[in-house]
Amino acid sequence: MKIGLFIPCFMNELYPDICKATYKILKNLNLEIEYPLEQTCCGQPMANSGCSKDIETLAKNFVKTFKKYDYIVAPSGSCVSMVKEHYAPFFDNDNDYNHVKASVYEVCEFLHDVIGLDNLNIDVSFPFNVGVHNSCHGHRVLKLATASELNIPYNSKLKNLLSKVNDINIVELKREDECCGFGGTFSVQEEAISVAMGKDRIKDHLNSNAQIMTGADMSCLMHMDGIINRNKEPIKVMHITEILAGVKP
User: Fold this and answer.
1) pLDDT in tens, 200-215
2) Domains 2-115 and 129-244 share a fold
């Protein structure tokens, strides 16, 4: 299989080490990976702000760039959700877009559902208490975990992958799927509500004695990391790909 590595623009600028960790995980599995330089923003910030017409150019560039790959893999659930859920109005049942929509995966979803990962192919030890933040879109769009309102047995693909890591202790949170309050531009437009929600989410992790907070979307983690740093809370944020790639806190 030929994989196109989709790196969200904000991660390329702010979190290059997480992007490298994503590449390392896929490379350790002996997969053929390319990073197309023509890629740019998926358009999610514009969508969050109601500027839907401004997305069309970005959507068409994305499909043109990634249509040649068997799979498209990204370390950001929200950006993957953007491509899968919000590009259709710009394509009239277009075969190229239909292929891209069916082929784009968040990296944990890809490892869990497509690869069926049994082991990481590297010896990874992470002897820390880890709390898993499952972002809203990860729950309800990508099905990375079970949404609580369904009232069915809980399952988390992120936790299943983390269980492959030696010495890790995954803590139980009071609310497995509570929103962190980020919501893209919502955090700017409704700052007070956004911060209050972020504080509640962090408190749940602290009350569960988590040393590390992890998740599959750096935008949510970035929001909470800012609150943690400002309030000097005794917890650290790491993207799940860092843990799976053997990065130490």
Assistant:
1) 999 999 999 999 999 9
2) yes
Confidence of residue 121 (pLDDT cuts 50, 70, 90): low
Give me the DSSP letters along the chain: -EEEE---HHHHHH-HHHHHHHHHHHHHTT-EEE--TT----SHHHHHTT-GGGGHHHHHHHHHHHTT-SEEEESBHHHHHHHHHHSGGGSSS-HHHHHHHHHEEEHHHIIIIII--S--SS--B--SEEEEE--HHHHHTS-SB--GGG-S---BHHHHHHTTSBT-EEPPPS-TT---S-TTTHHHHTHHHHHHHHHHHHHHHHHTT-SEEEESBHHHHHHHHHHHHHHT-S-EEEEHHHHHTT---
Q: Could you tell me the pTM of the whole model?
A: 0.92
Q: 129-244 maps to which CATH number?
A: 3.40.50
27-50, pLDDT tens digit by residue?
989 999 999 999 999 998 888 778
Does the domain made of 2-115 have the CATH classification 3.40.50?
yes
